[in-house]
Automatic annotation (TrEMBL):
Domain of life: Bacteria
Top-level EC class as recorded in UniProt: transferase
Family of the protein in this entry: Belongs to the ribF family.
UniProt organism field: Campylobacter geochelonis
Pathway assigned in UniProt: Cofactor biosynthesis; FMN biosynthesis; FMN from riboflavin (ATP route): step 1/1; Cofactor biosynthesis; FAD biosynthesis; FAD from FMN: step 1/1
EC number annotated for this UniProt entry: 2.7.1.26, 2.7.7.2
GO molecular function: ATP binding; FMN adenylyltransferase activity; riboflavin kinase activity
Domain Riboflavin kinase intervals: 148-270
One of the GO biological process terms: riboflavin biosynthetic process
Protein name in UniProt: Riboflavin biosynthesis protein
InterPro entries: Riboflavin_kinase, Riboflavin_kinase_bac, Riboflavin_kinase_bac/euk, Riboflavin_kinase_dom_sf, Rossmann-like_a/b/a_fold
Matches recorded under Pfam families: Flavokinase
Keyword Flavoprotein: yes
Length: 273
């Protein structure tokens, strides 16, 4: 549905990747007729579609289309597109224009409406940033990443055909083709898997199948009763990192390890309730 930009009176500008706790400090200052102006690049995202989390309009601007502009030219584009704009909200570290030469305080030079610069946001004395959340996910610190996000990190993907080995020799899994999402560290996780709006306890693997064919895969074994053979898409929420990816000398050894993974995942998911 096309949104009438003339109705927008306030915008918050930024990348908004992750839509974490600090981002919501900006969003709550927008008021009723607010929107996000999202600067988009080509990197995998913590939140590929911000609309999945928000009830306010989101407008995307590709970094390639605006990175050559001066600060004044960039703000002029926004004034031209949002003709009734009254307020701009940015974070304390916002930079814009060619070579990011203009700072948050410079917006007031080009915009005569209200400019609100939001202070750095801390959670338990930790400054909340998307970069830190990515770093936590890369190291397997799911608990820390989820705390800064204010929710559980998740990925979504299409259910695709896998090796066929799981159901025959190991444990049946849903195999996912995930695009655009930032992926956590390779390894095994306690997770929750959403299929057709129903949540299931699960244990998930992300990484190269070093014990079999060496291919990269994202696989989820559902721990609850599950018979939805028509599943076409699944969402995986990360609860706890269980172990690193590892190579096993036989399928028997791998199966024994998966049994242990399942037990740990069940314990983690039950203690969460």
């Amino acid at each position: 549905m096309k949104i009438d930009k003339s109705k927008i009176k306030a915008i918050a500008i930024g990348r908004f990747d992750g839509l974490h706790l600090a981002h919501f400090e900006l969003i709550k200052r927008l008021g009723e007729n607010g929107a996000l102006v999202i600067i988009k690049d080509s990197k995998p995202k913590l939140t590929p579609k911000r609309e999945d989390y928000l009830k306010i309009p989101c407008f995307y601007y590709k970094i390639e289309d605006i990175k050559h502009l001066s600060g004044e030219e960039f703000i002029q584009i926004l004034k031209d597109e949002f003709v009734n704009l009254e307020k701009i909200v940015v974070g304390y570290d916002f930079e814009f224009g060619f070579n990011r030469a203009w700072k948050a305080k410079n917006i007031k030079e080009f915009f005569k409406g209200e400019v609100e610069i939001v202070d750095e946001f801390f959670l338990n004395k930790v400054s909340v940033h998307s970069k830190l959340i990515r770093s936590m996910l890369e190291s397997g610190d799911i608990k820390g990443a989820n705390e800064l996000l204010g929710r559980k990190y998740f990925i979504k993907g299409e259910v695709v055909k896998g090796q066929g080995l799981g159901a025959k020799e190991l444990f049946a899994t849903l195999n996912l083709d995930v695009k655009d999402y930032f992926l956590p560290k390779e390894g095994v996780y306690a997770t929750r898997c959403m299929v057709n709006n129903k949540a299931y306890k699960s244990v998930s693997f992300i990484g190269h199948r070093v014990s079999t064919d060496g291919e990269f895969s994202i696989e989820t074994h559902i721990l609850d009763d599950f018979c939805d053979v028509m599943a076409t898409e699944a969402k995986v929420e990360f609860v706890k990192f269980i172990r690193d990816n590892a190579k096993f000398t036989s399928l028997k050894a791998l199966k024994e390890q998966i049994k242990s993974d399942i037990a740990q995942a069940k314990q983690a998911l039950e203690s969460e309730n």
